[in-house]
Amino acid sequence: MSRILIVEDEDVIRSALRKLLQHNQYEVEEADSVSNACARYELTQFDLIITDLRLPDEPGTAMIRKAPTVPVLVMTSYASLRSAVDSMKMGAVDYIAKPFDHDEMLAAVADILARQPTDQSMQGEGNAPAAGAPDPSQIMFGECAAMQKVFTLIRKVAPTDSTVLIQGESGTGKELAAQALHQLSPRAAQPIISVNCAAIPETLIESELFGHEKGAFTGAVSVRNGLIEAADGGTLFLDEIGELPAEAQARLLRVLQEGEIRRVGSTQSRKVDVRMVAATHRNLKAMTRTGEFREDLFYRLNVMQIRLPSLNERGSDVLGLARRFLKRLGDRMNKPDLSLSPDAMQAIERHTWPGNVRELENAIERAVILSDDAVVTAEDLNLENEDDVDVPESLLAENRAQPRPAVAPERGQDLSLEDYFQHFVLENEEKMSETELAQRLGISRKSLWERRQRLGIPRKKGS
Ligand SMILES: Nc1ncnc2c1ncn2[C@@H]1O[C@H](COP(=O)(O)OP(=O)(O)OP(=O)(O)O)[C@@H](O)[C@H]1O
User: Fold this and answer.
1) What is the ipTM, given to two decimal places?
2) Distances (CA, A) of 381 to 334, 344, 369, 407
3) Which residue's alpha carbon is at the smallest distance from atom 25 of ligand 1?
4) How far is the CA of 101 from the centre of ligand 1 (A)?
5) How many domains is the chain partitioned into structurally?
6) For position 321, which CATH number holds?
7) Domain range holding 195?
8) Does one domain contain both 215 and 154?
9) What are 158-175's pLDDT values in tens digits?
10) Quick check: is 128 in a domain?
């Protein structure tokens, strides 16, 4: 069982996080400051340290120095995203912005633990690379021809500085592919900064990406570096690039053309050395025809294109992935040696997986929790009735092959979660910001955005 140390001075957050992790079969210890953590525990015995950034004595980033062999996940408020980026530069493995939803935290924890060198669970027999040499197959699984083509492209493109556009439906592994491109590149020792263009408020995106001068706008009380500068020497991953507003598109084009950025409110440019990787589930080319996306930017980004196949194009990989998730999640939840019954395998092969690999991962997690013995059955997977279960919204794709009705048929008078969500958003979107809406719904801004896309109620421009 993985051991996690939480360092957080706010009792409520610390105990909620402890319960969440314990509920998910992790062994958890806690401390309210860096000095207490060091005094009470042998830090090397932990598999992961989750720390708040602001603590009463030393900042949470001190844990990176004090436990150099243990991965440190930093929690920060959205307002201090910059310090999160700095924490990454200091060696934190990841950061998570508060308020985070449970799924987001669990996914980050699982991801970090899976990346540990001792965990070979995602490597398939015959799919492992030569020892020591980084390979895409160490980072993501794929044995089918379509994924082998993706890996070949990644191997070829990664060592170059070319801009890459990754396309694929939601949950197909675009972010993992970006990680692979970075880790296989000569920039691997430098940071990769991931920005979800859809999750940052439109009014803030330019200053977040490009930085701003003091007094550039109300609230710009001091000079701030942008995320592009933070990625200097490394890779900038722009997820959901199709959501970038027009003005930011123009600025980004300049960065790509001239290798220079200009902070908001500044007349001076500065050189940056950043490799850009962008991803989208949308058809950017079609968006250029409707004027939603700049054509010149599209061509600049589309130097190399990697298309991730949807899960139902991957043949027997679906079972290969299911087995690997079963092993990893089973180990994590203290249920080792789980296997799939024949009817579970059939159900997995028959399902259309509109939410792709993410949906499969979540379905297996649910089944591991529900299974009573060593064999996971089709009933544990419950794929036929998926719409009736409390499924995390992040699990469902925006662009399904066959859209499902928002209200499941014959569900009686009860409001489904989706109905509730839709009512709540439509009733409150005029008076609340996206951040407030997300907070009231108890989900992340990214989840709010994803659900809006899926339910066909996108955010109105300028709100
Ligand atoms: N080939 C793969 N092997 C192992 N895990 C994978 C693979 N592809 C995706 N996953 C897992 O599926 C989940 C979704 O992947 P990821 O976030 O990279 O998808 P995405 O295409 O970027 O999604 P979105 O468009 O919604 O941001 C993650 O937990 C990731 O680790």
Assistant:
1) 0.98
2) 19, 7, 10, 21
3) 170
4) 18
5) 4
6) 1.10.8.60
7) 138-307
8) yes
9) 999 999 999 999 899 999
10) no
